[in-house]
Amino acid sequence: MEPINVNQSISKNADFIEQVGIESGQPVHKCYQCGKCTAGCPVAFAMDYPPNQVIRMVQLGLKEELLRCNSIWLCATCSTCTTRCPCNIEIAHVMEVLRVMAGRSGTTPPGKAKNVELFYDSFLNTVEKYGRMFEVGTILQYNLKSKKPFNNADLGLPMFQKGKLKLGPSKVKNANEVARIFAEARRMEGGGK
Amino acid sequence: MKYAYYPGCSYHTSGKEYEASTRVVAKNLGLELVEIPDWSCCGATAAHGKSHLLNVALPARNLALAEEMGLDVTTPCASCYQQLAYANKCMIEDKKLKEKVNQVTGKTYNGTLKVKSIVEVIGSIAPEYIKAQIVKPLKGLKIAAYYGCLLVRPPKVTNFDDAENPMFLDNIMRLAGAETLDWPHKTECCGGSLAVSNLDIVVKMLNRIIKAAVECGANCFVVACPLCHFNLDMHQKSCNKMLGTSYTIPVFYFTQLLGLAMGLNQQDLQLGSHFTDTQKVLSMVG
Questions:
Q1: What GO annotations for molecular function exist for this entry (chain B) (predicted)?
Q2: Averaged pLDDT in 10-residue chunks for chain A of 193 residues
Q3: Which B residues 151-190 touch A at CB under 8 Å?
Q4: Element housing B221 (H / E)
Q5: Which among A14, B141, B213, B239 has the fewest CB atoms less than 10 Å away?
Q6: CB atoms within 10 A of CB B70
C-alpha cells in the first residue's frame, strides 16, 4: 500500500466510518489489533488484506481501498473471527456490510473476487426465477458470465451419473412470492442490483 | 416429536444421500418430519453478499409458513439451518426489522418458533433410546467428526454445541459404536461455495482438513452439511490432482452411519453414490 495520510482519510471519510458502524451494528472502533481474527481465518492466505487489517482500514476511513479489495469477497462467512474476537466485534458481519456497500457503489471486485460476485448473482437469479436454487442453471449462468464455458464441466458428468444433477429446476408453486421478496427488498433499499 | 421440516435446495441433487438418510433415520427414531409446504430457498451465502433485508426475508418466508403449521423448524443442511436461525434471531430481537421483513415477504411471522439443526434434534434424544436401536455397532470405524463452520458458528446464532470443540456428532457416533477422534480441524471452514469460483483456494483449505484427519488416524469423515460433503467427497480428487496428494478417505453423513448401525436398508441410506469409495470402510462394519 502507498503511504497514506491517515488524518486526511479519517476526516474525509467520516461518513463512511459511521455508516459501517450503523449498518453492521458493530463497535469497530474497539478493535486494538490483537490479530486473533487473522490467526484463525482459513482464507487469510488468499486475501489482499487479512481481516485485522480490514477492520483497521475501516477505523482509518480507507473507503476506496476497502471497496475494491478482494478480502471482502473471499471471506467465506465462516465466522471464526466473530467467534474469537475479544472485543465482540462480528467481523464476518462487517465483511458482509462492506460487500453490500461495494455492490451498491458499483465497484467491480478485483481478480479472484470478481467470480465470487458472479457466482452469487447467478445463484440468486435462479432463486428469483424458480423460488429455489437450480444447480445446473446457476453453473451455466456463472460459466457464461465468467466467460469460462467449460468451468466445472468435468464435474457435470460424474454428478449426473450418480444422480446428483437434475436438468430441470425444482420449482416453488408460488414462485411469484419469492420474486416479490426480491422486488420489495430492492424497492425498500432503493434500487441496486 | 414433530417438526416442520425444511429440506433445502440440494435435497434431491448434490445432497440427496443426506435427505434420504435423514428421513429414514428420523422415522425409525420416532421423529415426525412434516415438510413445510411450498418452501423456498433460504438465500445461503449468496444473499449474505447482496442485501441484509433479502438475507433475512428469504428464510423468513419459510419461517412464516412453518408458523402456520404451529411447529418448530428443523433442517439437515448446516447452511439452511444457520440462515433460518439467523433470520429467526434477527426478527425476534428487532421488532422494527420484523415488521419490515413481513412487509417484504407479504407474510406474517410473529417470531414464535425455534429453529434446530437435525444434529441437535437427534443429539438431544435420550442416549439409552438411541443405544437400544443399535443392532450393528460401527466397529472398526475411526471417525473424524467434521462440523465445519455454519453448524456451530457464530455461537450467538447457533448456540447448541461448543463453537470450538463441538461434541454432538461425536456423541451420536459413539452411541452407534464407532470410535471418534480428537482432532484439531473439527470446525475449520471447507470454503463452501468458493469451490465454484476459486477452486485453487478451496483445495488448499481442504488439504489442511483432510491432512489433519488422516494424521490423527481417521479412516472416514462424518459430516452434517451437503456443502461440506460435496467439497470433501467430490473435491478430494481435485485436491489430489492439483496438490499431488493421494487421499481416499470416504465422507459419510452422520445419518447414513447412524442408519447403518440401526440396521436400516443400505439402499435407503444411499451409501453407494459417493465419489470417494465407501466399500472398503463399510466392509469393516460387515
A1: oxidoreductase activity
A2: 86 96 96 98 98 98 96 96 98 96 93 92 93 88 84 78 84 93 92 47
A3: 153-155, 163-164, 187-189
A4: strand B220-223
A5: A14
A6: 10
pLDDT digits (tens, 9 = 90+) for A78-110: 999 999 999 999 999 999 999 999 999 999 999
pTM value > 0.90? yes
**Subunit contact B100:A92, Cβ cutoff 8 A:** no
User: Would you call the peptide bond into B154 cis, given omega within 30 degrees of 0 as the criterion?
Assistant: yes
For the purposes of burial, counting CB atoms within 10 Å of the CB of B285, is it exposed (0-12), middle (13-18) or buried (19 or more)?
middle
Nearest CA-CA partner of B239 in B216, B211, B273, B220: B211
Task: Choose the CATH number for B2-118 among 3.55.30.10, 3.40.1080.10, 2.60.40.1180, 1.20.1050.140.
Answer: 1.20.1050.140
The SS3 assignment for A47 reads coil
Number of domains chain A is built from: 2
Note whether ipTM > 0.90 here.
yes
* Interface contact B51-A82, CB threshold 8 A: no
Taking CB atoms and an 8 Å cut-off, how many pairs form between chains A and B?
179
Q: Hey, is the C-beta of A148 within 8 angstroms of any chain B C-beta?
A: no
Edge-first strand order for the sheet with B179-180 is: B179-180, B142-145, B220-223, B251-253
- Taking the CA of residue B206 and the nearest CA in chain A, the distance in Å comes to 10
The count of other CB atoms within 10 Å of the CB of residue A160 is: 14
Rounded-to-10 torsion of CA B110, B111, B113, B116? 140
Residues of chain B scoring pLDDT < 50:
none
